[in-house]
Amino acid sequence: MGHRMIGRLAAALVAGALLTLALPVPAPAQAPRKVTFVFPTPVMDLRYSPASVGIELGFFKEEGIEPTFQTLAGSAAAIQAVMAGQADLGTSTNEPAITSRQRDIPVRYFYEWYTKIIYRLGVPEASAIRTVADLRGKNIGIQSHASAALPYARAVLRAAGLNPDTDVTFLPVGVGAQAATALRGGQVDALALWDTQYAGIENLGTKFRYFVHPQLANLSSGGLFSSDEWLKNNRDVAVRFGRAWAKASTFIFANPEAAIRIHWKIYPQTKPKGVSDAEALKQATHVLRTVLEYHGREHKKNRAWGAFSPEEWQQYIEFLVREKVIPSSFPAAQIMTNEYIDAINDFAQDKVRALARDYKTN
Questions:
Q1: pLDDT in tens, 200-225
Q2: Contacts of 84 (CB under 8 A, 6+ apart)
Q3: How far is 288 from 48, CA to CA, in rounded Å?
């Protein structure tokens, strides 16, 4: 080989080596972001199936999120945990959060999940009580006098021309089988509870006639929240968590039965005991379909997952002022934001629905 050829080869090898050195080195895969999320209940019931579906189908993993889900006793406890930095995110109905914000505690919702108020008054279908006005002189069962269902029940009565302080008596009867026993035994004539509680009692054999407030029934009622500071410093994390939640919600609405079985797989203690698999599925389906009525978006002007209506939230704040739950009003923009919604909805919903349609459970 001639000297010129050797020189050219050497130059080419050197140039190739320099080019290789100049190429960017691929960055190592980013570790999943760990996020602690709290629920306002001691039981992971089917309302919280976006958590189990998101885990099982890898939606959180796709978004680079490694969630830890914790349960607490009530919305106030969930808000306190997030505000104290013991958790990053949480979910609750909006009454305790509005109360907190009115006291300048910087809680903020970034994803609407409860798209209707979950509370209502219920009487047995066989009852002679046909209208709210028929409740005059009756006893109404509530979980406790601290229940967020109580202000709503009072508003329903007032809208029908009754005085909730003098025309009815509110009696604490607990929830679940305890409330059902009080109703069947005649201790109370009606109940003031919420969607999943009624669905559970219906599974025990009691069918209800329901009364809702004519102006309040379809107002937004809560969602996913954090603190102002955490959201400011972790915008991308909130978006990715919200997107995984939206993917899971899309799946659940498209295939409720699959969502139930996935939830039982992740949280086996939630499957009804002492009944056949068919009966367990029947009961769970009734509960989940009831829940989905309060998380759907068909009745919203903006149907994007998580989108808020500031006008609806302002109406709810004014309602809490009228019911003396909070002493004064404040702008809804102080407690909710839509700035994450476009990014949260940036995924192929059709693909998720197709996954749900084709999903096979054992």
A1: 999 989 999 999 998 888 888 899 99
A2: none
A3: 10
